[in-house]
């Protein structure tokens, strides 16, 4: 990754009309309905953006969408990249750097994840307060990282306190149960064994997924305030573990998504 590559990607999007977005949004698995809220959308398919990671078959629909939500300019990433698809950390986080170069001031991230904390239930939404990186690497571990910001990034409070506080208030106002906890990010794509779920609980994780942490690390590198929520799609009880049903996970994400949309829309209005 070079600054020149970033500049070419940004120039292409600006030529399409992506002008001064205020907020960037990353949508997780099964969480695509937010794009229906975008007014006057302009679409850029990943395959057409210079130096953007090439979409796999699963992500042929991957696109950046620019427009307005609640009167503010947003750029929404529909379809993210994962380590388990064979991408590297620089690929996964390239879109975050692009959105920041376009001008976003805040970043919202969502994901679908499993509830390790058994007080949490399928369909709940969890506000991520902290994370554990179990992906075996960092999106900042490359030679010329100093060209893009400080090499050593403080992570004492990776998720923006002010936006978290506003989201809690919104949830209370709209009678949305908003859990709070620690998100563990693993490589995947296989799901966890019973022993691994027990390990995650011992480590202090409340939820587990296969994304989000690289994007959040880069947001902190760019000094970009970030907030993230998990839609909890399954309950990870090692003493009563049932075979996974991916279709059911996506259905649960879809049913819970209106709550996430309410949280994000109201947050956009308030910041």
Structural description of this entry:
This protein is an alpha/beta fold and 271 residues long. The protein has one domain: Rossmann fold. 31% of the residues lie in helices and 24% in strands. Strands 5-8-7-6-9 form a five-stranded mixed barrel. α2 crosses α5 (213-221). The mean pLDDT is 94. It is an enzyme of class 2 (transferase). The purine nucleoside phosphorylases catalyze the phosphorolytic breakdown of the N-glycosidic bond in the beta-(deoxy)ribonucleoside molecules, with the formation of the corresponding free purine bases and pentose-1-phosphate.
Topology:
Layout (H helix, E strand, L loop, with lengths): L2 H14 L6 E5 L11 E7 L17 E7 L2 E7 L10 H14 L3 E10 L9 E9 L27 H13 L4 E8 L8 H10 L3 E3 L3 H9 L4 E10 L10 H25 L1
Helix pairs in contact: 1-2, 2-5, 3-6
% residues in beta strands:
15-25%
- What CATH architecture would you give? 3-Layer(aba) Sandwich
Count of discrete domains: 1
Distance between the termini: 32 Å
Q: Topology as H/E string?
A: HEEEEHEEHEHEHEH
Average pLDDT number:
94
| Percent helix | 25-40%
Question: What's the β-strand tally?
Answer: 9
Shape call? globular
Query: In terms of structural class, how would the helical and strand content be classed?
Result: alpha/beta
- Largest sheet, described in full? 5 strands, mixed, barrel
CATH fold-level topology: Rossmann fold
CATH-level-4 superfamily name? Nucleoside phosphorylase domain
CATH class: Alpha Beta
Strand order of the largest sheet: 5-8-7-6-9
pLDDT < 50 stretches: none
Specify the number of helices.
6
User: Rg, please?
Assistant: 18 Å
